[in-house]
Amino acid sequence: MTSKILQDKVAVIWGGSGSIGTATAARFVEEGATVYLAGRTEDSLKTAVENTGAAGYGVVDVLDEDAVTAFVGRTVEETGHLDISFNVAHRGDVQGAPLLEMPAADFVRPVVDGATGSFHTARATARHMVGQGSGVIVELNSASGRGSGPMMGGTGAADGALDALVRDLAQEVGPSGVRVVGIWTAGLTDSLTAEKLGEVLGTEVSQAMVDGIIANLDSMRMTKKSPVTTHIAQTAAFLASDGAGAITGTWVNATSGMFPS
Question: What is the pTM of this model?
Answer without folding.
Answer: 0.94
